[in-house]
Write a structure and sequence with these properties.
Blueprint: H1 3-32, H2 46-85, H3 89-118, H4 127-130, H5 133-147, H6 152-188, H7 192-219, H8 228-254, H9 260-274, H10 281-316
Helix pairs in contact: 2-3, 2-5, 2-10, 3-5, 3-6, 5-10, 6-7, 6-8, 6-10, 7-8, 8-9
Length: 340
Amino acid sequence: MSRFLRRIVLTIVWLALVAVIAIGGAGLVTTMSNQPGTPARAELTADGDKAAQAGLEAAAVDLVDLTADVDRLGELGRGALTALVDSDFATLSTSIADGQSLARSIEDRSAVIRQGLMELPGTGLYEPINWSPETRRRRDLALVAINATSGLEGAWVRLAAGSTTANTLGVLLTDHDKIAGQAAAQGRSAKYAAALKTLAQAQAKLAQAKTLRDALRDALANTIVDVTTLTQWIDRNDEYDKALAHLYKATIAAKGRITSDLKQAAIEERQAHDLLPSNTSGLVIILAEIGRGGLNQAVIGIEQTRAKLQAAVDELTAAPAASVPAASVPAAFASPSAAP
Protein backbone atom coordinates (compact mmCIF):
# COMPACT_ATOMS: atom_id res chain seq x y z
CA MET A 1 0.00 0.00 0.00
CA SER A 2 1.36 3.36 -0.96
CA ARG A 3 2.07 6.02 1.60
CA PHE A 4 -0.77 8.15 0.23
CA LEU A 5 -3.37 5.41 0.65
CA ARG A 6 -2.11 4.59 4.14
CA ARG A 7 -2.59 8.21 5.18
CA ILE A 8 -6.13 8.19 3.83
CA VAL A 9 -6.97 5.01 5.75
CA LEU A 10 -5.51 6.38 8.99
CA THR A 11 -7.46 9.60 8.57
CA ILE A 12 -10.71 7.69 8.08
CA VAL A 13 -10.03 5.53 11.15
CA TRP A 14 -9.22 8.63 13.23
CA LEU A 15 -12.42 10.38 12.16
CA ALA A 16 -14.40 7.25 12.99
CA LEU A 17 -12.91 7.14 16.50
CA VAL A 18 -13.70 10.81 17.05
CA ALA A 19 -17.29 10.23 15.94
CA VAL A 20 -17.68 7.26 18.31
CA ILE A 21 -16.30 9.27 21.25
CA ALA A 22 -18.56 12.22 20.46
CA ILE A 23 -21.64 10.02 20.26
CA GLY A 24 -20.71 8.30 23.53
CA GLY A 25 -20.18 11.64 25.27
CA ALA A 26 -23.52 12.91 24.06
CA GLY A 27 -25.19 9.81 25.38
CA LEU A 28 -23.49 10.24 28.75
CA VAL A 29 -24.63 13.86 28.98
CA THR A 30 -28.16 12.83 28.06
CA THR A 31 -28.12 10.11 30.69
CA MET A 32 -26.79 12.43 33.40
CA SER A 33 -29.38 15.09 32.60
CA ASN A 34 -32.21 12.59 32.99
CA GLN A 35 -31.42 11.30 36.47
CA PRO A 36 -34.07 10.75 39.14
CA GLY A 37 -34.90 13.93 41.02
CA THR A 38 -34.65 16.15 37.96
CA PRO A 39 -37.59 17.62 36.04
CA ALA A 40 -36.71 15.52 33.01
CA ARG A 41 -37.48 12.29 34.88
CA ALA A 42 -40.33 13.32 37.18
CA GLU A 43 -41.87 9.87 36.91
CA LEU A 44 -38.91 8.36 38.77
CA THR A 45 -39.72 10.33 41.97
CA ALA A 46 -43.50 10.01 41.71
CA ASP A 47 -43.74 7.34 44.42
CA GLY A 48 -41.42 9.22 46.79
CA ASP A 49 -43.29 12.48 46.22
CA LYS A 50 -46.60 10.77 46.90
CA ALA A 51 -45.29 9.18 50.11
CA ALA A 52 -44.09 12.55 51.41
CA GLN A 53 -47.16 14.47 50.30
CA ALA A 54 -49.39 13.40 53.20
CA GLY A 55 -46.85 14.59 55.76
CA LEU A 56 -46.35 17.89 53.96
CA GLU A 57 -50.09 18.52 53.83
CA ALA A 58 -50.43 17.74 57.54
CA ALA A 59 -47.56 20.12 58.30
CA ALA A 60 -49.27 22.85 56.27
CA VAL A 61 -52.47 22.44 58.31
CA ASP A 62 -50.50 22.51 61.56
CA LEU A 63 -48.66 25.64 60.44
CA VAL A 64 -51.98 27.39 59.79
CA ASP A 65 -53.04 26.68 63.38
CA LEU A 66 -49.62 27.69 64.68
CA THR A 67 -49.76 30.98 62.81
CA ALA A 68 -53.10 31.75 64.45
CA ASP A 69 -51.58 31.10 67.88
CA VAL A 70 -48.58 33.32 67.17
CA ASP A 71 -51.02 36.02 66.07
CA ARG A 72 -52.84 35.60 69.39
CA LEU A 73 -49.52 35.88 71.22
CA GLY A 74 -48.94 39.18 69.46
CA GLU A 75 -52.34 40.39 70.66
CA LEU A 76 -51.40 39.49 74.22
CA GLY A 77 -48.16 41.42 73.85
CA ARG A 78 -49.95 44.51 72.58
CA GLY A 79 -52.51 44.16 75.37
CA ALA A 80 -49.72 44.01 77.94
CA LEU A 81 -48.22 47.19 76.50
CA THR A 82 -51.56 48.97 76.78
CA ALA A 83 -52.00 47.77 80.36
CA LEU A 84 -48.52 48.98 81.26
CA VAL A 85 -49.18 52.43 79.83
CA ASP A 86 -52.49 52.58 81.73
CA SER A 87 -50.84 51.25 84.92
CA ASP A 88 -53.38 48.42 84.88
CA PHE A 89 -51.10 45.95 86.61
CA ALA A 90 -53.75 43.26 87.10
CA THR A 91 -54.37 43.07 83.35
CA LEU A 92 -50.63 43.25 82.73
CA SER A 93 -49.95 40.25 84.96
CA THR A 94 -52.77 38.25 83.35
CA SER A 95 -51.55 39.03 79.83
CA ILE A 96 -47.99 38.05 80.69
CA ALA A 97 -49.07 34.77 82.31
CA ASP A 98 -51.36 33.88 79.39
CA GLY A 99 -48.63 34.77 76.92
CA GLN A 100 -46.09 32.58 78.65
CA SER A 101 -48.43 29.57 78.56
CA LEU A 102 -49.23 30.17 74.90
CA ALA A 103 -45.57 30.65 73.95
CA ARG A 104 -44.69 27.37 75.65
CA SER A 105 -47.50 25.61 73.78
CA ILE A 106 -46.29 27.06 70.47
CA GLU A 107 -42.76 25.80 71.01
CA ASP A 108 -43.95 22.34 72.09
CA ARG A 109 -46.15 21.96 69.03
CA SER A 110 -43.40 23.33 66.81
CA ALA A 111 -41.11 20.57 68.04
CA VAL A 112 -43.70 17.94 67.10
CA ILE A 113 -44.19 19.43 63.62
CA ARG A 114 -40.42 19.68 63.11
CA GLN A 115 -39.98 16.04 64.09
CA GLY A 116 -42.66 15.00 61.61
CA LEU A 117 -40.95 16.90 58.80
CA MET A 118 -37.61 15.31 59.63
CA GLU A 119 -39.19 11.85 59.44
CA LEU A 120 -41.01 12.18 56.13
CA PRO A 121 -40.72 9.03 53.99
CA GLY A 122 -37.64 9.41 51.81
CA THR A 123 -35.81 11.75 54.17
CA GLY A 124 -32.07 11.35 54.33
CA LEU A 125 -29.05 10.97 52.13
CA TYR A 126 -31.03 9.93 49.05
CA GLU A 127 -33.56 12.77 49.07
CA PRO A 128 -32.35 14.04 45.66
CA ILE A 129 -33.22 10.63 44.23
CA ASN A 130 -36.40 9.98 46.21
CA TRP A 131 -38.03 13.39 45.86
CA SER A 132 -38.59 15.94 43.15
CA PRO A 133 -37.14 19.44 43.61
CA GLU A 134 -40.65 20.71 44.43
CA THR A 135 -41.08 18.25 47.30
CA ARG A 136 -37.69 19.17 48.72
CA ARG A 137 -38.50 22.86 48.38
CA ARG A 138 -41.79 22.49 50.24
CA ARG A 139 -40.19 20.47 53.03
CA ASP A 140 -37.37 23.02 53.41
CA LEU A 141 -39.85 25.88 53.38
CA ALA A 142 -41.84 24.29 56.20
CA LEU A 143 -38.67 23.70 58.24
CA VAL A 144 -37.56 27.31 57.87
CA ALA A 145 -40.98 28.49 59.02
CA ILE A 146 -41.14 26.17 62.01
CA ASN A 147 -37.60 27.07 63.07
CA ALA A 148 -38.71 30.71 63.28
CA THR A 149 -40.63 29.84 66.45
CA SER A 150 -37.48 28.66 68.25
CA GLY A 151 -36.82 30.73 71.34
CA LEU A 152 -40.26 32.33 71.33
CA GLU A 153 -41.02 31.19 74.86
CA GLY A 154 -37.64 32.30 76.17
CA ALA A 155 -38.00 35.71 74.53
CA TRP A 156 -41.45 36.17 76.02
CA VAL A 157 -40.30 35.14 79.48
CA ARG A 158 -37.26 37.43 79.41
CA LEU A 159 -38.78 40.50 77.87
CA ALA A 160 -42.34 40.42 79.14
CA ALA A 161 -41.15 39.53 82.62
CA GLY A 162 -38.96 42.62 82.43
CA SER A 163 -42.09 44.76 82.65
CA THR A 164 -43.23 42.93 85.77
CA THR A 165 -39.80 43.36 87.31
CA ALA A 166 -39.87 47.06 86.47
CA ASN A 167 -43.20 47.43 88.25
CA THR A 168 -41.93 45.57 91.30
CA LEU A 169 -38.87 47.80 91.32
CA GLY A 170 -41.11 50.83 91.31
CA VAL A 171 -42.97 49.56 94.37
CA LEU A 172 -39.73 48.76 96.22
CA LEU A 173 -38.13 52.11 95.53
CA THR A 174 -41.29 54.01 96.44
CA ASP A 175 -41.53 52.06 99.69
CA HIS A 176 -37.87 52.78 100.34
CA ASP A 177 -38.41 56.51 100.00
CA LYS A 178 -41.38 56.44 102.39
CA ILE A 179 -39.51 54.43 105.02
CA ALA A 180 -36.36 56.53 104.66
CA GLY A 181 -38.51 59.62 105.12
CA GLN A 182 -39.88 58.16 108.35
CA ALA A 183 -36.33 57.51 109.55
CA ALA A 184 -35.37 61.10 108.79
CA ALA A 185 -38.39 62.35 110.75
CA GLN A 186 -37.34 60.24 113.73
CA GLY A 187 -33.84 61.67 113.49
CA ARG A 188 -35.16 65.21 113.53
CA SER A 189 -36.98 64.27 116.74
CA ALA A 190 -33.66 63.08 118.20
CA LYS A 191 -34.87 59.45 118.20
CA TYR A 192 -31.64 58.26 116.66
CA ALA A 193 -31.74 54.62 117.74
CA ALA A 194 -35.28 54.22 116.40
CA ALA A 195 -34.26 56.07 113.25
CA LEU A 196 -31.44 53.59 112.64
CA LYS A 197 -33.85 50.66 112.90
CA THR A 198 -36.27 52.30 110.50
CA LEU A 199 -33.44 53.17 108.13
CA ALA A 200 -32.34 49.52 108.14
CA GLN A 201 -35.80 48.61 106.81
CA ALA A 202 -35.39 51.14 104.02
CA GLN A 203 -31.95 49.75 103.18
CA ALA A 204 -33.44 46.25 102.98
CA LYS A 205 -35.91 47.51 100.36
CA LEU A 206 -33.01 48.99 98.44
CA ALA A 207 -31.09 45.71 98.61
CA GLN A 208 -34.08 43.91 97.08
CA ALA A 209 -34.24 46.58 94.40
CA LYS A 210 -30.57 46.00 93.55
CA THR A 211 -31.18 42.28 93.13
CA LEU A 212 -34.13 42.92 90.83
CA ARG A 213 -32.13 45.53 88.94
CA ASP A 214 -29.44 42.94 88.25
CA ALA A 215 -32.04 40.42 87.07
CA LEU A 216 -33.60 43.05 84.82
CA ARG A 217 -30.22 43.99 83.38
CA ASP A 218 -29.45 40.35 82.56
CA ALA A 219 -32.90 39.73 81.07
CA LEU A 220 -32.63 42.76 78.79
CA ALA A 221 -28.93 42.36 77.97
CA ASN A 222 -29.53 41.90 74.23
CA THR A 223 -32.15 44.61 73.84
CA ILE A 224 -32.14 48.36 73.41
CA VAL A 225 -33.24 48.83 77.03
CA ASP A 226 -30.65 50.52 79.27
CA VAL A 227 -30.69 50.37 83.08
CA THR A 228 -27.84 52.84 83.60
CA THR A 229 -30.08 55.66 84.83
CA LEU A 230 -31.92 53.27 87.15
CA THR A 231 -28.58 52.14 88.58
CA GLN A 232 -27.56 55.73 89.25
CA TRP A 233 -30.87 56.35 91.00
CA ILE A 234 -30.39 53.33 93.27
CA ASP A 235 -26.74 54.13 93.97
CA ARG A 236 -27.48 57.70 95.03
CA ASN A 237 -30.18 56.56 97.45
CA ASP A 238 -27.84 53.91 98.80
CA GLU A 239 -25.11 56.49 99.37
CA TYR A 240 -27.53 58.76 101.20
CA ASP A 241 -28.82 55.94 103.42
CA LYS A 242 -25.27 55.09 104.44
CA ALA A 243 -24.41 58.74 105.07
CA LEU A 244 -27.56 59.24 107.17
CA ALA A 245 -26.85 56.08 109.18
CA HIS A 246 -23.31 57.31 109.79
CA LEU A 247 -24.67 60.65 111.00
CA TYR A 248 -27.06 59.01 113.47
CA LYS A 249 -24.36 56.68 114.79
CA ALA A 250 -21.91 59.56 115.16
CA THR A 251 -24.56 61.60 116.98
CA ILE A 252 -25.25 58.78 119.44
CA ALA A 253 -21.52 58.25 120.02
CA ALA A 254 -20.87 61.99 120.53
CA LYS A 255 -23.28 62.15 123.48
CA GLY A 256 -24.02 65.82 122.98
CA ARG A 257 -20.47 66.81 122.03
CA ILE A 258 -19.32 68.15 118.65
CA THR A 259 -16.75 65.61 117.55
CA SER A 260 -14.71 65.49 114.37
CA ASP A 261 -16.53 62.31 113.33
CA LEU A 262 -19.88 64.05 113.82
CA LYS A 263 -18.75 67.02 111.74
CA GLN A 264 -17.54 64.75 108.94
CA ALA A 265 -20.74 62.71 109.07
CA ALA A 266 -22.84 65.88 108.79
CA ILE A 267 -20.85 67.03 105.75
CA GLU A 268 -21.21 63.63 104.04
CA GLU A 269 -24.95 63.55 104.75
CA ARG A 270 -25.44 66.99 103.21
CA GLN A 271 -23.38 66.13 100.13
CA ALA A 272 -25.27 62.86 99.58
CA HIS A 273 -28.60 64.63 100.12
CA ASP A 274 -27.80 67.21 97.46
CA LEU A 275 -27.28 64.42 94.91
CA LEU A 276 -30.73 62.92 95.50
CA PRO A 277 -33.44 63.51 92.86
CA SER A 278 -35.94 66.13 93.97
CA ASN A 279 -38.93 63.77 93.48
CA THR A 280 -39.87 60.32 92.18
CA SER A 281 -41.54 61.42 88.95
CA GLY A 282 -38.36 60.67 87.02
CA LEU A 283 -38.25 57.19 88.50
CA VAL A 284 -41.76 56.47 87.25
CA ILE A 285 -40.75 57.49 83.73
CA ILE A 286 -37.54 55.44 83.85
CA LEU A 287 -39.28 52.25 84.95
CA ALA A 288 -42.14 52.73 82.49
CA GLU A 289 -39.65 53.08 79.64
CA ILE A 290 -37.81 49.95 80.75
CA GLY A 291 -41.04 47.97 80.90
CA ARG A 292 -42.26 49.23 77.54
CA GLY A 293 -38.88 48.62 75.95
CA GLY A 294 -38.92 44.97 76.95
CA LEU A 295 -42.46 44.41 75.75
CA ASN A 296 -41.81 46.27 72.51
CA GLN A 297 -38.95 43.90 71.76
CA ALA A 298 -41.19 40.91 72.48
CA VAL A 299 -43.99 42.19 70.24
CA ILE A 300 -41.58 42.95 67.38
CA GLY A 301 -40.09 39.45 67.59
CA ILE A 302 -43.55 37.87 67.61
CA GLU A 303 -44.63 39.85 64.55
CA GLN A 304 -41.51 38.79 62.66
CA THR A 305 -42.20 35.14 63.50
CA ARG A 306 -45.83 35.46 62.44
CA ALA A 307 -44.81 36.99 59.10
CA LYS A 308 -42.43 34.09 58.37
CA LEU A 309 -45.07 31.53 59.27
CA GLN A 310 -47.73 33.23 57.17
CA ALA A 311 -45.43 33.43 54.15
CA ALA A 312 -44.68 29.72 54.45
CA VAL A 313 -48.36 28.84 54.86
CA ASP A 314 -49.26 30.86 51.77
CA GLU A 315 -46.74 28.94 49.69
CA LEU A 316 -47.47 25.52 51.17
CA THR A 317 -51.22 25.84 50.70
CA ALA A 318 -50.85 27.13 47.14
CA ALA A 319 -51.01 24.72 44.22
CA PRO A 320 -47.65 22.89 43.91
CA ALA A 321 -45.44 24.15 41.13
CA ALA A 322 -45.23 21.80 38.16
CA SER A 323 -42.02 19.81 38.27
CA VAL A 324 -41.89 19.40 34.49
CA PRO A 325 -43.75 20.84 31.49
CA ALA A 326 -46.34 18.42 30.11
CA ALA A 327 -44.78 18.50 26.65
CA SER A 328 -41.50 17.12 27.96
CA VAL A 329 -43.03 14.13 29.78
CA PRO A 330 -42.51 10.94 27.77
CA ALA A 331 -45.73 9.73 26.17
CA ALA A 332 -45.60 6.48 28.13
CA PHE A 333 -45.88 8.42 31.42
CA ALA A 334 -48.23 11.20 30.35
CA SER A 335 -51.65 11.36 32.00
CA PRO A 336 -54.70 10.75 29.79
CA SER A 337 -55.68 14.41 30.02
CA ALA A 338 -52.25 15.43 28.75
CA ALA A 339 -52.36 13.13 25.75
CA PRO A 340 -53.09 14.79 22.39
